[in-house]
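Hi X.,

You mentioned you wanted examples for the new student's onboarding notes, showing what a folding record looks like when two proteins sit in one file. Here is a clean example. The first protein comes first, with its sequence line followed by its structure tokens.
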Amino acid sequence: MAGRRRRGIRLRELYAFSGGSGGRSRRWQVAGGHGYAGNKISTTKYTVVNLVPKSLFEQFRRVANVFFLVVSCVSFTPLAPYRAVSVLLPLVVVVGATMAKEAVEDWRRKQQDVEVNNRKVKVCREDQAFHQTEWKNIQVGDIVMVERDEFFPADLLLLSSSYEDGICYVETMNLDGETNLKLKQSLERRHRFVRRTRFTVFSFASTASFRDSKLRNTDYVFGIVIFTGHETKVMKNAMEAPSKRSKIERKMDKIIYVQISVLILIVSIGSVFFGIETKKDINGETFQRWYLRPDDTSDFFDPNKAFLASFFHFMTGLMLYGCFIPISLYISVEIVKVLQSTFINKDREMYYEEADKPARARTSNLNEELGQVDTVLSDKTGTLTCNSMEFVKCSIGGIAYGDVETESLEKNPHHQDPDYWGYYKDSHCDQNNSIKGFSFSDARLMNGEWSKQPHSDIIQKFFQVLAICHTVVPEVKNESTKILYEAESQMKLHLTYKILNIIEFTPSRKRMTVILRNDEGQLLLLSKGADSVMFDRLSEDGRASEAKTREHVNRYSEAGLRTLVVAYRELSEEEYREWNQMFEKANNSVSDNRGELVDAAADIIEQNLILIGATAVEDRLQKGVPECIEKLVQAGIKIWVLTGDKLETAVNIGFSCNLLRKDMKLIMITLDKPDIACFKDIEKQIFDARAEVRMAGSRDVLGLVIEGKSLTFALAGDLEKSFLELALGCTSVICCRTSPKQKALVARLVKKGTEGTILAVGDGANDVGMLQEADIGVGISGVEGMQAVMSSDFAIAQFRYLERLLLVHGHWCYRRIAAMICYFFYKNIMFGFTLFWYEAHASFSGQPAYNDWYISFYNLAFTSLPVIALGVFDQDVPASICLKFPSLHQDGVKNIFFSWRRILGWMVNGVCGSLIIFYLSTNIILPQAFRKDGSVAGAEILGATMYTAVVWTVNCQMALFLNYFTWIHHLFIWGSIVSWYVFLVVYGSLPTTISASAYQVFVEACAASPLYWSVTFFTMASALVPYFLFSGLQTTFFPRYHDLVQRAHLDGLYEHLIRKTIVPPPLSSSSS
């Protein structure tokens, strides 16, 4: 229990420390300003000086931008077919927009830094009084006063607190995400000398408090500043999350390389033909193309230097066909992903009203990856369950108590058998207890009846241990008499003497111990922990009820309850004195292995215990978890659960949440069986299980359960592949008794060993490694703090929202991004190949078919907005249909919409469309009169007509492809076409020095010509025929699953579709 609060404190009792000296000092800032880092921090990526160069470096790491930079440089030479400004403008716009986005994001970080640096804290000055000072002005050696609910401004060594014993309680959510309170002990009257070295501070974990942690349940503390600014722990540990890129984005880079290869190929073809034709221009004294004056020309067209002329043509061609590379693709994809993330954040169906927590896309890079998830790795406690413990049963002295029916027990086949549980039911017992965390009820113990039991002394000792051996801090709020309980662990919230020592619980120790002196002067050691470590520490005389207690613990675990074993022992004064000296020495050690020394000292005293009993608490499943898992399994997603619980508990939860089913054959890999103790035995179990999987029929459903010790061997180099093959052959996998490191290793193994997308979901600090190792990390913003959320890519409040995140948003985002990228390459290939056909028609002379500003605005204005609308708003089916037919998710898993076959199909569609537009335009317009006066069309009219046909075709192609029209789609599609005509009028009205070949071409020539309009619509319709025929034939005669679902949605024949038309893809044991 916390010490009494201190009435006041005298400054002369505070100690100030400096590097290499110690003791009391009346000079408070002995270390300030002597070469130590200031306390001002900066988390910005850029500065005013390096913003431009650093941002430019980031932009030109993209191959497309590098290509356009080279083209822009060449455009200033006589080789350029266009004016330099028209080539440079698109690059400047795209790079400038991206740099502006980076600058805005960095400015927001700067504002946050300013807010933090200007926070106030009380600092002791020369007059021995405390004055409000901004954080940025704090220096090493300052003594600061931190008050309740204030953040620590720097790393401090605690000198004193408002409690007489110098303790305080600190919340470290901003450091490790944990909401649990940490108990800290001040250095007051304990240490007179501290060497200021890096290892010293972290060795004094119990006496140091770090920047950005918060003081809780303590009126004030005094501390000396030892590390400031970027030297503090939180800043040293502030590392960027691992960079994750989606599979589609990585594939997009490969497509860019393919595009560049195609560009180089057609430029090379043109250059070769140009060189051959140029060399033929002079044959002796005969000029083949006399109108080009080959006898009086520059090196660019000199027949006597045909090879050099061919090289120059190659450089010209790189600029001429630069439109093959979609320069605005990257920024368009970024814009679309940000808008998609906004829809995820605003989805009311994923808003948890009870805790006021919406879903959060913490990164927009992986939206489409949600639709390709093949395997889900999930934590259990706090992820599948509520992490709200209810004390429901206990075993005391070998007798089981507790008659409350729980969610887990109701699903146990023995739950109606009193002999199995070892208790009797009393219908008169009051079970309507309103105390949070306490659902225990048993007439033999309640209302003072425990004192009448035969072993009342053991019962009393049992509840004394529960009442003392914990870290719960009761706090009475001033405005009410309600008592709030703050605990280091949610497991301890249901449990509330002079305490001499507290040996804290750690994942490696799996137990907590308190040493105290009672009112009678006895020294007692009280301990509770996991059965795997507690039973081995019992004395020979303390095992009287071991057999029965083990039996009860196993039955509780089988029912899905979480258990702790309770024990104690008495200590002699001499034994305690010798041990305490050893423990204090280990606790105050400044060496790197301080933790190991403390554990070793604790291990010495935590022996020869006397067993009292065991507790059983229930952690209920979250709402909707079984239904969510069932839906994900129907979607073909494999689900693994990785938990630290006992095997029996994990298996029971597996059945409760529909991960395991009664018709499923379970394969157990465990070291708990007799005669199983080494690597070879685990190897044999895995090989035997693999043989069983291979022999199983397609209808057999298998589940794998493996515990932590066995998993250690299974993850060894020689067994990794065999274990993974076994696991992939099972429908469900449960790994129990796993450590945080094992969770990360499993995620790494599955990610590297399969081609599918791996998603990890967890809620605690022990899940961070798994979340960062997986392709996608989803954090549950539960009761274990925010570290999992801070390390995740997406955050949701409840596990059930994973269903909508994957099956709805994942499906939409994947399909939208895939279609958007394919469409980008389609429209650029169509536009680029019309240039190629025209140049071939003009003997590869390097003359462009279009005005240079036509080319510049093609991607920036006339075709960009519709493709962005596609990426943001298109829906092949509504959300309700995505959930009704979860097998639609397999489209993403199999990458149907972004396979090389589909990508090349869109590219071929672009080539065909370009050939149709060029062939029809040239063969209809050129042979006949175009104007009313009988004159024929020139290159400027042909170029404007082909360009108009291209703009109409690519926008109408978008209208054909869309499944879901909104007013935004209509505005962008038809508005893009209208904007082309507006541009023609405005640009054509400018002087010829600016508009060049576009001068009055629309107003004076095209607009008045019926041939222009007829050719435009005829070529547009003809260019759409290949897509229309292909898609019509495919959906009619070779429909795929999503085609049938779309048709059923349009016709409203869902039940008929389910019964007769569609059989979802089989979820075999190897692929479900």
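Then the second protein repeats the pattern, sequence line and then tokens:
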Amino acid sequence: MGESVRDFELREYFPAWARSASECELELSVSADDGLDSEQVSWRREIYGWNELEKHPGPSIWRLILDQFRDTLVRILLGAAVVSFFLAWFDGNLGEAGIASFVEPLVIFLILIVNAAVGVWQENNAEKALEALKEIQSEHATVKRDGEWIPNLPARELVPGDIVQLRVGDKVPADMRVFHLISSTCRVDQGSLTGESAAVNKTNRSAISEDTDVQGKECMVFAGTTVVNGSCVCLVTQTGMDTEIGKIHSQIHEASQCDDETPLKKKLNEFGELLTTIIGVICALVWLINVKYFFTWEYDNGWPCNFRFSFEKCTYYFKIAVALAVAAIPEGLPAIITTCLALGTRKMAQKNALVRRLSSVETLGCTTVICSDKTGTLTTNQMSAVKIVAMGHQTDSLRAFIVEGTTYDPDDGEIHGWPADKMDENLQMIAKIAAVCNDANISQSAHQFVATGMPTEAALKNNTILLSSICLFPWKLDSFFIGVAPVSVLVEKMGIPSDFSTLLQESSILLRCCHWWNGIARRIATLEFDRVRKSMGVIVNSELGNNSLLVKGAVENLLERSSYIQLLDGSVVRLDESSRNLVLEALHEMSTNALRCIGFAYKTDLSELATYDGEDHPAHRCLLDPSNYSSIESDLTFVGFVGLRDPPREEVREAIKDCREAGIRVIVITGDNKGTAEAICREIGVFGPDEDINSKSFIGKDFMLLPDRQNILRQKGGLLFSRAEPKHKQEIVRLLKEDGEVVAMTGDGVNDAPALKLADIGIAMGISGTEVAKEASDMILADDNFSTIVAAVGEGRSIYNNMKAFIRYMISSNIGEVASIFLTAALGIPEGLIPVQLLWVNLVTDGPPATALGFNPPDRDIMKKPPRRTDDPLINAWILFRYLVIGFYVGIATAGVSVIWYTHGSFMGIDLSGDGHTLVSYSQLADWGQCSTWEGFQVSPFNAGNHIFSFDENPCNYFQSGKVKATTLSLSVLVAIEMFNSLNALSEDGSLITMHPWANPWLLLAMCISFGLHFLILYVPFLTRVFGIVPLSFNEWLLVLVVAFPVILIDEILKLVGRWRSSSQLGRSSKRLKID
């Protein structure tokens, strides 16, 4: 069987699921009896490589570190730190002042290192979804090669064409076509791939269509899934990156490469670029204004000559430029943002939203579209029976009973109009079939009732031939599994015949009625569900020793195979056309109301199976072939049906309403059928009760074929996509993002991971979600509840508003610092603030109030406003003007208080002469550089705390070392103004009269902490020397408060103007709307 590369190469697209086993054998040039030989394996490995997922090389650690320095703000900080470090180094002063000069660059370097470390850690976490995907791969396989079975062959060595045997507990090593079943049935848990909660029956019969989804490929098993029952022989069709899980791996990697910056980060980068320009312009102006001090010349015959350059003065003004850079950059902003986001994640966790990435908190605030799954997110994911339809006295009449209850609690609700005293024969038969033809169970965990699945071992102990452990309806692979649990609950509400009810009074079994029915009708065989019959049957043996067949399934299919109908009194008559149409009309009415219906039928004449009693019976061979089930389930007697529904969560309708008021569109993407999904969407408010939804509701596959998909997605209001596959989710997310929307997407399966990764906010289900989906997500819902998403969006908006408050607060403070340094340089007065002082204010003093602003209470109308656009400026023109005004006042106040101290013995009645300092005129202060040329200039000693400053040797030092008191006053005024300014930041336009300071008690506490820290550096001797300041007297503190307090009055006036502007704009908008 030797071959060359030219002899064999699997077609790029070979739909093995739509081909018979023999056709697949021929296509792959292999014999199932012998398997591949060594030469074939070698050739095929050359073509297809190893059966493993690619290892995408991540960026090196150095690349990750360098990437952290791409932000403009970080680069400015780095440049300022480097320059400051070299200036301190070249000064060569190793005393206390010299050490103080190194504090500034070292602290900035420390900030940059911590910021880079956090960034690298987040980047490393980004690839965890790919690692989680690799963990679900198989490591070994049993393979037939050269005619012999090889156990425990490394799974990575598999090639297309290999024959593999799968047994219970095996992980599927590659995508494979089922060749034949060894056991009567084989079930595979595909939850790791598709998110389905139920195991799936596999068959060797080919699918009807080539164009079917993963769930429809019943003859295929997929890499990473697990065999939970039975065994089979399979043919490998795809390996490595060509498998379904390999495709998902590629999509996750591709989506991870498209990670966009968050809206806030974009705004901060834009602000950084603007800041760079502003700093450059101001530095240039400072140098131009002061160039006369370090670069002078004389004129000879009108021409400049005798140029003199003062390196000392040049360095001095260069330091001023560095101080400007430090003043302009909000160094503490990254730390404050991280703290605020971290606090936001704690708030969200209390609301069952677990945020995995801090940046997601801010992005949530500008979400414009929520793409939500239906089952379990909008609904409870607990199917409940809501209606029973039984036969009447005559063939032309039906009875309907309304069932209460929305949970798996048997005592939750009752059946209206139920004949509790005497169940007629027809109702008894419905209860019997519902109880016995049922593999589900209910258990109680604390106060919650849950479906626990099929008791396989118990069934085997009862000598049941378990040909199927789970039955699946065509609308969704796990729907029948979910459906049978509420049927068990329904049986408990129906009860048992009154003659036997006393037997159950002392029973402690949860499903007492089901247990009783199973006791009088012992199951001895099960006819598995398949997509052709759409039904499940069980052969039972009664206490009298008679065998009968009980069947449940799709109502239409049971009617087609039924010849009789059972009436109320138990009599059996022929099923005529009018009776059939009557049942179908009732079925149609219930289906249009989003009810999933399960029909019930039975059969007493079982011919050769009438005496069946186990595997040794001659008719056992008939049961081993599923193709015989249709003939066994023929000539049935139809008895009635029930309507089930997965009810919407009670809080969802209000959450949808909140979304509409908040300007957020809701798009429902579900694998459910269109009719059911539309009914649910109308009920919860995605669509109006009478809204025309022909252009808003689509089947996923049909939508993908439309040429104007983008325009459809731009429609206002809700949209619905039914029968949607994960690849449809990806395409919808991609189109929405291209249109500028901020998309939140929910998902739970492995194949949802690429869409979760691609969305701006990927939201995984905490209860039903796979680990891969959780690792690919930005947020996990601990309760799988849609309203939790809406609550998280509201919290995100509140957090963003608070972030804007402290960002504006810090920026306005920095503008004030820049204005102070600029005015000092422009006026020519002695330098007021040094870089280490500015750094202390930016990092420490401003830190607590900025953090406390993150605790501002949310606005009451926060979910009444439309989402902000991602391109909305962080600081608009009016806000910038406001803070320029505030900043200009801060500059005047900090520079002005220094001038007041030098030139005034008292100010507004406050005596400042107590320290004995010498007063000078303003002209002298502005020309202090020429002090050495002044004749007879003398300075008296002055005291500051316990220290006395004397200038007998050089009176001009009064403007250098003697400026320490003026510098301390400037620094204290700056701190006080910024504390008062934090009160202004409580509300963007609200007055402190209406938004009281105690609305945020944390802010008041933070102000006390900041003042305390300032007192610490003022009155601890070591710290006073490090920061170049001295203690202040009581009168000097009064001066500080008098100069600082007007900032509140100025901003109150500006807020008043802002409220007037807002009302004017609102009035103009209202007029335009009326005209329109």
